[in-house]
Amino acid sequence: MHGVIKTVLLASLLWFVSMPMPAVVHALTAADDTPQVTLAGAACHYHVRAGDLAEALGLSRQVDKHRTLKELGIGTRDLETALKSVAIGETEPRRAMHRGAGRGLGGGAGRGYGAAGQNGTQGHQERQVVRDAYCYLLWPVLLGGMLWWLLRGGRFEDGRLLPVTKRYAPLAGRATLLLVVLFFGFASGKSPNPMEALVKYFKALAGFYEGAWKYFGVLMFFTLLSIVGNKLICGWGCPLGALQELLYDLPLVRRRNRLRLPFRWTMLLRTLLFGGFLVFTFGLFGRKWVLYHGINPFNLFGFEFDLLSIGAVVVAVLLLAPAVYRPFCQLVCPFGWYAWFFEKASLTGIRIDHDRCIGCGACDRACPVEAAGDRLSGKSWPAECYSCARCLRVCPVDAIDYGPRWRQKSEPSGE
Ligand code: SF4
Ligand code: SF4
Question: Among 24-33, 78-87, 120-129, 140-149, which is the least confidently predicted range?
Fold first, then answer.
């Protein structure tokens, strides 16, 4: 019975994320009262740098970006033209994205904004495209390596099972996380990232961009990386997740003072946020805007703090992370929320051999979330697991491992 419910829920979610939204959504975009938004808000909305947009509008890059377009004397057509100018010289996918943005404002002729600005923007966009390509190529390689480490590399040496104290050397894990922060974060900039993939897909459905299927493809890329190993992209590939992991590992807060958040509340909060995101993105109450733009800490990696709220969220995440495991992932991130629904379908993950387990609770105490405890008690929909390997290091009787889900270990006796 449980199997049927899970299958129906998973199928519904897949249908929901892939359904083509009706054309009426496009019509809603045309009603945008653009001059009322701030320059920073418009830049965030259309995924361009506020400085580039200011320059394209013939303003100084240092202009107060919290003034509304109306105050700055910018009309809808000016904005549309500037957005097209920012897009000049981009490779096809990005150009299409901005064409979509322009159309959302009603279409019209374009005018340039100065060769220097265009060249600067073009160079920046070209570098970003190259960085994106490297990221999409290197993520599967990195996560393939981490999957091997979780399945065998952290557990066996020369074909022999390592003693518990030597399994899953924390230093190897931290070195990988640091690399992820440096390469997929600071070297690559704010994007691509799993959260953006989900957000952009729904933005495309809402008419912000053209070609929703392209964004669907990117979302499926991250979904697959989440399924091949239980939330593997969150656990080991996302730069923001990796940064929070590293901060949590710093001995700044005593272990007993750390806060473990109840999963049902974190899920509820993220569900509400995602619901709000859908309502505002599709403009169900008037002007369309993207809720996550103002609270997106991935901006840290591009040093883009166009909105005060972004800076505040970054500071809050950095301050909370040593005491609360992955505060942004657990409380806000829509991809973390979405990926939980796919945990049941993940090919590999934590397995507990209940015949061997002596019920000491060491894995539950080592786990920073409720995932190990829920798996221990045999919950059918356990809390989210980030494949962090902490529980794998502590079992005194080797009753827990990371392995293929289709070869499950024994069920708990109470079930
Ligand atoms: S849940 Fe965390 S790790 Fe996963 S995409 Fe979001 S920020 Fe990154
Ligand atoms: S410690 Fe918890 S989150 Fe980490 S792998 Fe184990 S069950 Fe998953």
Answer: 24-33
Q: Could you tell me the pTM of the whole model?
A: 0.77
- Shortest-distance atom of ligand 1 to CA 235: 3
User: Which among 219, 329, 338 is the best mutation to test ligand 1's pocket, defined by most ligand atoms within 8 Å of the CB?
Assistant: 329
Determine the pLDDT at residue 256.
83
CB 90 within 8 A of CB 101: no
**What CA–CA distances, in Å, run from 111 to 42, 56, 108, 149?**
19, 10, 10, 54
Q: How far is the C-alpha of 67 from the C-alpha of 36, rounded, in Å?
A: 9
Tens-place pLDDT, residues 104-158: 333 333 333 345 455 666 676 777 788 899 999 999 999 999 999 999 999 999 8
Residue 395 Cα to ligand 2 midpoint, Å, equals 12
Write the CA distances from 340 to 357, 383, 386, integer angstroms: 26, 8, 10
7 CA to centre of ligand 1 in angstroms = 25
Distance from the alpha carbon of residue 298 to the mean position of ligand 1, in angstroms? 10
Per residue in 232-270, pLDDT tens? Answer: 999 999 999 999 999 999 998 888 889 999 999 999 999
The token pair that represents 399 in the structure block: 């009753």
Ligand 2 centroid to 332 CA: how many Å?
A: 20
Parallel, antiparallel or unpaired: strands 348-352 and 400-404? antiparallel
Q: To test ligand 2's pocket by mutation, which of 326, 388, 395, 402 has the most ligand atoms within 8 angstroms of CB? A: 388
